[in-house]
């Protein structure tokens, strides 16, 4: 069976949609783990926090978001089996939003 | 390791610390019921253009083909890479890869012919 | 002793890129049109560029990476493409203005029209970059640039009303021609806060193999060099204010440049101004050419260094060669160098946000700068400079249209 290839750089910034069709945020990074010499995707990181972390500006970003009255939880961690990437331009959740883990500060080691 | 933060757009060097470009793209391999595997990195102008817009990427590919230049990006298997701090090292020899095709062509056909090069 | 020499050389070379046709022209125009009133714009621009250059140098010394490297790595290829397009275009126009400046100096010296000097000037610039090393370009041309000190001497000898000079260092509202006043202020800021200055500086730090041990030296060089450059710009403004303003003369043609020093030094004043303009613009042209080549090579991850043979980095060499050709082409067409200069300074001001915003992120990125991160004060200054940059970006082009006179 031929394998589907996904370009990470084209996934970057794409809106991720919940089961009800509502966007939950943009895909900002992809976390991987090493297993027996290969790297596998463990989580997809979605939301403003993930973007600020990528820019190494999490502290500044949280402050800015706070100033503009944004919600405290500005991101999600989506496990690899909770997302459907068959259409890379339209990634969709395979579970309810409530089942996702929120992004937290302590998950970003400096 | 976070792919975008730690790998994408980072400087790519060969085993001899020679700069050979940047990681313009990363490719995941999807298989049913298994976590996606990081398979390759990609270098190339078309990859960069695709990031701006698919139309631009396709136009770039057509332009390259018009001049008999292969538009396909150069891929390096993930197994040959080591991701460091703000840098990725590939277990290849840069001058023997398509990454330096333009560099070598310019050196041979243009720059190298100018006195004092 | 070695450190003192290094610092002294560093300060001199920093002046090299600062004083160029843009800063000379805008300062002269400010002095002619508004006497000492716009000294504050040079002071403000000088303070901003000190902080930006110091941070660019610190970043490179500690991280071993240049600004374009880090901008591509942190902000991605699309943001870099925007930066490259904006900076590349603006830098090319400024380069054309600088080549124009060299040609003006040669026209004044020989009487042969400036367009005819475009190709020889471009060839000279290319030859020095092709054959020379970074040290030759940075230090050699900059040492020659010490001739611009004649402008400071001239400004002292002409004995301006120093109380008015000091008063001019404080911001004030225009007494006449408000639109033109603010346009000239914006142009001065565009000439002073030039992105090529801090981008070139960060690449230069890598070329000179700076490391953490240079953080202190960098601070002295950035502060000293940019201050020195600002003082020379102020000297030009003072001369124009003393010579043009009382006669109600406008500075609107490059043939007026010698008049800045001939009243002070007579016959030698002419040759001093010709040498000052020629050498300052030559140095700036080389820096801008290299900056465009560095930006390209670093953004795409190519091999680059002015210290290597051209054939070892063929793409880098090809880029600076093409850049010089494009810059010279604009001068060959006969575009008035003065008008081109004023326009490119306004455009520089309009493009500032794209290159300054990344500072706020990069100078606080532990993976690059580690313990040498910005203090709260430096971050506050960067935020002020970013705010100023956005204001300039919004007003530069409208002012060019309505107040460019």
Structure commentary:
The complex is a heterotrimer of chains A (110), B (117) and C (405). By secondary structure, chain A is α+β, with helices and mostly antiparallel strands. Chain A has three helices and eight strands, in the order E-H-E-E-E-H-H-E-E-E-E. A five-stranded antiparallel β-sheet of chain A has the order 2-3-4-5-8. By secondary structure, chain B is an alpha+beta fold. Chain B is 29% helix and 27% strand. In chain B, helix 2 runs antiparallel to helix 3 (54-66). Chain B is globular and about 60 Å long. The mean pLDDT of chain B is 92. In chain C, helix 1 (2-18) crosses helix 6, helix 2 (21-34) crosses helix 11 (215-243) and helix 3 (39-63) runs antiparallel to helix 11 (215-243). In chain C, 59% of the residues are buried. The longest helix of chain C is centred in the N-terminal third of the chain and has 44 residues, at 67-110. Chains in contact: A-B, A-C, B-C. The A-B interface holds A 1, 3-10, 12, 28-32, 34, 37-42, 45, 53-54, 80-81, 85 and B 1-5, 8, 24-32, 34-39, 42, 47, 50-51, 78-79. Strand 1 (4-7) of chain A pairs antiparallel with strand 3 of chain B, so a sheet runs across the interface.
Descriptive labels:
heterotrimer, A: 110 residues, alpha+beta, two-stranded antiparallel ribbon, 19% helix, B: 117 residues, four-stranded mixed sheet, three-stranded antiparallel sheet, 4 helices, 29% helix
- Count up the helices of chain C: 17
Gap between N and C termini of chain C: 51 Å
What's the overall geometry of chain B? globular
Helix percentage of chain C: over 70%
The neighbouring-strand order within the major sheet of chain B is 2-1-7-6
Low-pLDDT segments, ≥5 res of chain B? none
Mind summarizing the main beta sheet of chain C? none
Number of E strands of chain B: 7
Topology:
The complex is a heterotrimer of chains A (110), B (117) and C (405).
Chain A: E1 4-7, H1 8-11, E2 15-17, E3 23-35, E4 38-46, H2 48-54, H3 58-67, E5 76-79, E6 83-84, E7 92-93, E8 101-102
Helix pairs in contact in A: 2-3
Chain B: H1 3-6, E1 11-13, E2 19-22, E3 25-30, E4 37-43, H2 45-52, H3 54-66, E5 74-77, E6 81-84, E7 87-90, H4 101-109
Parallel strand pairs in B: 1-7
Antiparallel strand pairs in B: 1-2, 3-4, 4-5, 6-7
Helix pairs in contact in B: 2-3
Chain C: H1 2-18, H2 21-34, H3 39-63, H4 67-110, H5 118-131, H6 134-144, H7 149-157, H8 162-168, H9 178-192, H10 195-207, H11 215-243, H12 262-265, H13 267-300, H14 314-332, H15 337-362, H16 366-369, H17 376-403
Helix pairs in contact in C: 1-6, 1-11, 2-9, 2-11, 2-15, 3-9, 3-10, 3-11, 4-10, 4-13, 4-14, 4-15, 5-13, 5-14, 6-13, 7-11, 9-15, 9-17, 10-13, 13-14, 15-17
């Amino acid at each position: 069976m031929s394998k589907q290839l996904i370009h990470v750089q084209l996934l970057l910034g794409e809106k991720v949609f919940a089961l009800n069709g509502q966007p939950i945020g943009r895909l900002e990074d992809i976390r991987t783990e090493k297993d027996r010499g290969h790297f596998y995707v463990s989580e997809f990181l979605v939301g403003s926090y993930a973007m600020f972390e990528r820019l190494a500006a999490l502290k500044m970003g949280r402050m800015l978001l706070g100033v503009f009255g944004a919600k405290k939880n500005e991101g999600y961690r989506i496990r690899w089996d909770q997302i459907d990437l068959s259409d890379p331009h339209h990634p969709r959740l395979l579970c309810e939003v409530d089942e996702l883990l929120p992004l937290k500060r302590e998950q970003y080691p400096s | 390791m976070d792919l975008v933060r730690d790998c994408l757009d980072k400087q790519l060097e060969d085993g001899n610390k020679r700069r050979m470009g940047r990681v313009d793209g990363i490719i995941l391999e999807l298989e049913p019921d298994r976590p996606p595997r990081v398979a390759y990195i990609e270098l190339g102008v078309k990859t960069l253009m695709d990031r701006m817009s698919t139309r631009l990427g396709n136009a770039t590919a057509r332009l390259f083909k018009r001049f008999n230049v292969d538009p396909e990006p150069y891929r390096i298997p993930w197994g040959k890479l080591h991701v460091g701090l703000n840098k990725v090292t590939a277990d290849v020899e840069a001058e023997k890869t398509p990454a330096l095709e333009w560099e070598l062509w310019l050196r041979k056909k243009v720059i190298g012919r100018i006195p004092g090069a | 002793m070695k450190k003192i020499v290094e610092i002294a050389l560093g300060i001199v070379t920093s002046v090299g890129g600062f004083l160029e046709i843009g800063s000379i022209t805008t300062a002269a125009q400010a002095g002619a049109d508004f006497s000492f009133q716009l000294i504050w714009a040079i002071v403000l621009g000088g303070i901003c560029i000190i902080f930006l250059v110091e941070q660019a140098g610190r970043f490179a010394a500690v991280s071993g990476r240049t600004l374009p490297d880090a901008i591509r790595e942190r902000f991605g290829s699309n943001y870099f493409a925007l930066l490259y397009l904006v900076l590349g275009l603006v830098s090319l126009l400024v380069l054309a203005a600088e080549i124009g400046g060299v040609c003006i100096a040669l026209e004044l010296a020989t009487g042969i029209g400036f367009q005819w000097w475009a190709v020889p000037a471009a060839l000279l610039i290319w030859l020095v970059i092709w054959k020379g090393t970074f040290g030759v370009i940075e230090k050699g041309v900059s040492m020659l640039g010490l001739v611009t000190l004649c402008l400071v001497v001239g400004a002292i000898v002409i004995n301006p009303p120093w109380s008015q000079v000091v008063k001019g260092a404080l911001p004030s509202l225009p007494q006449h021609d408000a639109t033109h006043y603010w346009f000239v202020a914006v142009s001065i800021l565009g000439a002073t806060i030039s992105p090529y200055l801090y981008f070139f500086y960060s690449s230069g730090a890598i070329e000179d193999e700076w490391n953490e041990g240079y953080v202190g030296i960098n601070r002295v060089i950035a502060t000293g060099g940019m201050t020195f450059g600002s003082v020379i710009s102020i000297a030009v403004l003072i001369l124009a204010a003393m010579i043009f303003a009382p006669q109600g003369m406008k500075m609107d043609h490059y043939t007026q440049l010698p008049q800045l020093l001939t009243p002070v030094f007579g016959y030698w004043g002419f040759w001093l101004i010709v040498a000052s303009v020629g050498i300052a613009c030559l140095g700036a042209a080389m820096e801008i050419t290299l900056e465009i080549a560095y930006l390209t090579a670093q953004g795409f991850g190519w091999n680059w260094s002015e210290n290597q043979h051209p054939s070892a980095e063929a793409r880098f060499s090809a880029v600076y060669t093409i850049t010089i050709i494009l810059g010279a082409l604009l001068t060959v067409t006969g575009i008035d160098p003065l008008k081109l200069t004023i326009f490119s300074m306004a455009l520089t001001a309009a493009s500032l946000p794209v290159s300054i915003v990344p500072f706020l992120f990069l100078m606080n990125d532990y993976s690059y700068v580690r313990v040498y991160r910005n203090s709260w004060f430096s971050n506050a200054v960067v935020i002020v400079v970013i705010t100023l940059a956005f204001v300039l970006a919004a007003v530069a082009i409208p002012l060019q249209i309505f107040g460019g006179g």
